[in-house]
Each structure stands twice: as C-alpha cells, then as structure tokens.
Description:
The complex is a heterodimer.
Chain A: H1 2-14, H2 19-34, H3 41-50, H4 57-70, H5 73-85, H6 91-104, H7 110-127, H8 132-143, H9 145-148, H10 153-162, H11 166-195, H12 206-228, H13 234-252, H14 258-291, H15 294-304, H16 309-326, H17 329-346, H18 351-364, H19 373-382, H20 386-409, H21 412-415
Helix pairs in contact in A: 1-2, 2-14, 3-14, 4-7, 4-10, 4-13, 4-14, 5-6, 5-12, 6-7, 6-8, 6-11, 7-8, 7-19, 8-19, 8-20, 10-17, 10-18, 11-18, 11-20, 12-13, 14-17, 15-17, 16-17, 16-18, 16-20, 17-18, 18-20
Chain B: H1 2-37, H2 44-64, H3 82-113, H4 126-130, H5 132-160
Helix pairs in contact in B: 1-2, 2-5, 3-5
Amino acid sequence: MAALLFIVFLLLIVINVPIAIALALSSVLIMAIIGEIPLIMLPQKMFAALDSFPLMAAPFFILAGKLMEIGGISERLVNFANSLVGQLKGGLAHVSLVACMFFAAISGSGSATTAAIGGIMIPAMVKAGYDRNFATAVQAAGGTTGIIIPPSVPLVLYGVSAGVSISGLFIAGILPGILIGLSLMFVAYVISKKEGYGAGAERTKLWKSFKEAILALLMPAIILGGIYGGFFTPTEASVVAVVYGFVIGTFVYKQINFKTLHTILVESVITTSVILFIIGSASIFGMLLTREQVPQTIAGSLMDASIPPFLTLILINLLLLVVGTFMEAIAAIVILTPILLPVVTSIGMDPIHFGIIMTANLAIGLITPPVGVSLFVGARVGNTQFEPLVRAIIPFIIMMIISILIITFVPQLSLMFLD
Amino acid sequence: MWSKTLGGINKVTKYMTSGFLIVMVVIIFLQIVSRIVIQSSFSWTEELARFLMIWLTFLGAAFSFQHGAHIGISMLTDKLPKKVSAIITLLVGILCSVLFVILTVKGFELVGKSANQTSPAMRIPMSYVYWVIPISGVLLTLNVADVSVRQMITLWKGERT
Lengths: 419, 161
C-alpha cells in the first residue's frame, strides 16, 4: 500500500498537480482502497495539523520579512556591511554577502534576502566593473543564508513536523549559517583575486553606519536574545518582529503606507495559505506512512544491511540534495521529515542537528536549476540570462556542499549552545 | 458574469483574510504585553488566533489559485507540445476538483457531527469553526475550475498562432 501511495503521489506531481493537492489526493485514494479509515479524517487531520500555536511563527515571520523588504532596512545594512568588509579584495561581493547574512538574521526567507539586498548590490557591483553573472551568483548564493540563519520559516516548519523545539533549532542554526556565509565569502575572495576585482568603493565610517543601521541590527538581538533568554516563545518573537518592522518601516524610515501595507498583507496571506495548506495535507499523507510503518521499514533495512552510520548520513545528504533540486524546500521538509527522522535518530543523531542538516541541504536547492527560487529571483533582479548564471554559481554550490559535510560531521557546531 | 462574481468573492475573502492576519498580530501582541505588564494572560487570545490562522489558510488557498501560487513541479509539462499540455491542464483541474468536492462533503459532515462540541477556551461551538472547511471547499473548486479552464483555452489557442 505504501508503494502505491508513493507511485500515485509521484504520478500526480509529474503532471504538475500542486504538491498540497497531490499529497491529499493520493492519500484519499489509498484510504478509499483500504476502506478502514473514514474519509472524514481528511478535514479532521488537516484542521488538527493547523491548530498549532508554534506553527503560527511561520505566517508572522513571513509577514515580518515582507515588511522589512520594503521598509528601507536593506540600504542601511548594506552601508554597515560596507564599513566592515568593503576594503577586502572583491569588496563589494563581501559587502553583499555580509549584508545578506544580516538580512537573514531578520528575515526567514531565502528569496526575500536575495531580492532585498540584490536590488541594491547587483547594480552596484556591475557599475564597479564586476561580471554581471558573478555579481548575481554572489547574491543568489548569499540568499541561501536566509533560511539557515535564524529566524527561518523552514526551521519553524521542521520543528512543527519533527516535534522538536523551534527555539533550539534557531539557536542551533546560528553557527552553521555563519559558516556557510564565510565559506561563500572565501569563494568570492578567490574569484575576485583571479579576476582582479579591487576593494570596495568609498570607505564608510564604521561608527556612523553602525548608528544608522542600529534599528535594523537590534532586530536579531531582540528576536534571538528574547528566545535565548527565555522571554519569548518563537511565535511571540515573530509577533514582536512584525510590530517592530511595522513601526520602524512606517514611522522611522517612512517607507510603508496604506497602499504598500495592503500589498504586503495580501502577499503574506497567499504565501502563508499555500505553505500551511501543504502542512495540512501532508499530515494525512504522514498518517498513512506511519500506519504502513514506512519509516521503521527504511530504518530497519538500513540496519539489516549493516550500513555504517557515516554512509547512511552521506546517503541522506545526497537524497536531500537531489530532492532539493526539484522540490521546494518547505514541501520537501514537510514530506521527508516524518520519513527520515526515525532513520537518523536510530543511528543516534540529535533531531535538532538533523533539522539544520536538512535545511542546509535544501538551501542548496534554492540555487540549483531547474527550480532554484533564489536563482530565478537573482536572474530577474540582476537582469541576467539563466545559463551563464548557472555556470557562475557552480563554485558557490561546491563550497556549500563542503560546508554541509562539515555541519554533518561536526555536530558541536549546531549543538554547542544548547543544553 | 461568472468571472465578475468569482472576482467579487475573491476580493471579499482577500480583505477578510488580510483582516484576520492583522487581528492575529494584535491579539498575540496584546497577550505578550499583558503577560509582561499585568503578569497574566487571557485564555482566549491564543485559541482565537489559531482559529483565525486556520480560516486564513483555507480561504486563502482558494484565491491563491488565481495567483498561480500553489507550488507544483512544472518542469516536465512545460516541455510538452501546447495541445497535450492543454489536455493535462484540464485533467489536473478535474483531479483537484475531485479532491475539493470530497473536502466539501466531508467538511460538511464534520460540521454536522460537531454541533455539540465547544472550543476549550472561548466556549464557541466547534461547528462554527469547522464551517470554514465546506465553504472553502466550494471556493477552492470554483477557483481551480476557473483557472484550469482559462489556462487550457490559452494553451490550446497558443498552438495555432
């Protein structure tokens, strides 16, 4: 039955049935065939899956991210990043990567990060004589930190699917996110050296740019500090982020008005409902998988084949990489978490550590063809062709894979700040 | 007439769901403030926000079809000849409608079954909350039918020109 469930699901996916509908429809078909489970479970399970307070962090972080994207924060982050790393070789590439990391620390989305910083930095790099494809590749790759550095919508969804602490995941994501950011800077440095890209534009005064960016920089301090210090739950922190983003975007930077607010709200509702609809329908799919004992079977057969744990981890990384290239990160998390989590816990891995590995792997999917969202956003913002952009991004992808191997085999990187 | 009516319904649900999102932010923010200031919180805020999120999800999923926002994998269907793709689009529309009709019928059944249940905190009948499922089921069916038929016609015509 489990095999049939997967076959029907894949058939539906191949003909471009939306993932949420494919999950529910294949489950309904199997339920009708088995005959023991009443179909009223469909609305019941969907409702129950969405009836969750931790899950509410997802819509709030989506809304907060959209408020920040318009709210005039990006320019100030770019100026501050410029005063930090603008003098390195290939300065502007480093500025855009560091600005991406800062933006990632206030936004939970990869493509939003690429769009917000790329809109400023790609034209600036091209003007300074950088190759347009390289500039866009830097930006698209930088966007991947958006979902690894907390807050992160994919981490919220992993936490809900896996039943682990979202606060813990956020804390665990900090160092791996920084590692990936730094490794991307390393690639940018090597390429800039080869191509002879010079240091950044004018040196900006550190203190002055810091003061201007302070309101934006306070944001991650409030979110992460609040969660780490136990003042807020992640959901509460996400609401604080919304209110903070709204207040400074409207009253301090004066970029948000009634019209932009309406657009922001409608876009947030659409993104939220699409994601949560997948969560709802995945819960029925997951219920059938559990009933058919699919995760236990996979874990059991890996044990029987006496595959050593490190090989299992490599295989899982490969699987996630491949899935990430053709499936949206969020859909992949919701579908694969219930299947893979029992497998990795059976070889002694911490569920929080696995969440970081999974998110990092799927982050690569943001910048790989054919469906890399950040790649498309980058190509649009940077006004580039798709194919030369793909060639330019390959070194960044290779470096990210190396980083993921480090994240996988050095669990302390994710877990050292957790009790 | 048809597209005007559906467009009108979608406009209303767009305003409703945007309003839900605002209310969610306001009441959860109030919950934090009250917890910090008067060191107690209301029992109803969290429940109301959860129910609003569920309403937002189901109603929003319906008009999201008009924005092509539901995530699918189009890399294979994109490569097919336009006429074949038109037929597949229609097939996908029918498959989605089948699911949404089941959701409507079973959602309606759920409303009927839960007439005597009340929510733990606000003490409102759960049937009120569950009503969103059959209502959205109808809206989902209408929207997916509308979008699929229009897309199919465009694709079919696209081959000839």
